[in-house]
Amino acid sequence: MMIWIIIGMAVVTAIPRFLPAFIINQAKFPKWVDRWLNAIPYAALGALIFPGIVSVKPEAPQIGVIAALFAILLAWLNVNIIGVVLGAIVAVFLMTL
User: Fold this and answer.
1) How far separated are the first and last CA of the chain, in Å rounded?
2) At a CB cut-off of 8 Å and minimum separation 6, what does 85 contact?
3) Is the pLDDT of residue 25 over 80?
4) What is the residue extent of each domain of the chain?
5) Rounded distance between C-alpha atoms, residue 61 and residue 95, angstroms
6) CA separation for the pair 52, 66 (Å, rounded)
7) Torsion on CA atoms 36, 77, 71, 65, rounded to nearest 10
8) Model confidence at 24: pLDDT above 80
């Protein structure tokens, strides 16, 4: 009996997660809506990352900002994402010595 309850809860949880993905793929939006929807992941990522940047070293928030600028430079130079992350980590490490 318990397994059916777990399966039912999984289905009820999965439906609201998957249904919008299928609806969005079928819908045609105006170009400005598509541009706006494409910008959401970047805005959400920025909102998640920015607090960590300024709190790397609370008494010296400029360290996180400089490391973030270094990471942006590496990304602009088309460095692999692992290289960008490692570059930012090394930059913070070197500035906190």
Assistant:
1) 59
2) 71
3) no
4) 1-47, 55-97
5) 11
6) 13
7) -80
8) no
Tokens 């960590």 locate to: 52
Contact by Cβ (8 Å): 19, 58: no
Decide if 88 contacts 72 (C-beta within 8 A).
no
Whether pTM > 0.70 for this model: the answer is: no
Segments in the chain forming alpha helices (H): 2-26, 31-54, 61-76, 81-95
Mean pLDDT along residues 7-31: 87
Phi, psi (rounded to 5 degrees) for 29:
-110, 160
Mean pLDDT for 58-87 is 94
- Token output for 92: 């913070």
Residue 29 structure tokens: 């939006």
